[in-house]
Amino acid sequence: MAAWQFIIVLVPRDWAVEADFDPSCLYESDGYETEITWKNRQPTTNFKDLLSTILPPSETWSDTLLCWGNEKENDIQVGYENNSVKDIQIRLALHTQFMPLIGKLIEVVNELNCVLFFPELRLISNATERQLMESIQMSRAARFVTDSRKCLDDLKNET
Asked: Which helix (H) or strand (E) holds 16?
């Protein structure tokens, strides 16, 4: 992932409600995993068409991955196995003109009956433009784009 990309992961709304919007069970020692949110829950059958309204379909390098957009900029990746979705991840490149994607992204997330999970912020929220923009503003990617030198110094100090 590039320093200017902000990660958003979709999880089913009913799972989030059952979990009381608490993402703590999604974290492992080496990161996060959302496959459990999709167990016994799957998006509508037209989810590929819906995602295609945000970004155009693109080539994939794996038979267990569907892709839209451009992995170096804005993209959507859907991990699946045995025709079941395991993960839906969106990466926004904050150094590009990503704003035109925001409204459509929120619309599609709500049509899929999903919510937004922001792994970096350890936050699950309903899909609203306001919440998405506030989360983007709090991200490392936004700090990097705004002031890349300061952000790099901050990252060095965190390690």
From this structure: helix 13-18
What pLDDT digit, counting tens, does each position of 39-63 carry? 999 998 899 999 999 999 999 888 8
Q: Decide if pLDDT at 109 tops 70.
A: yes
How far apart, in Å, are the Cα atoms of 45 and each of 11, 41, 42, 131?
16, 12, 8, 27
Structure tokens at 48: 């590929």
* Strand arrangement of the beta sheet that strand 65-69 belongs to: 57-58, 65-69, 75-81, 84-93, 5-12, 114-118, 123-125
Buried b (16+ CB within 10 A) or exposed e, 27-40: eeeeebebeebbee
Cβ atoms of 48 and 56 closer than 8 Å? no
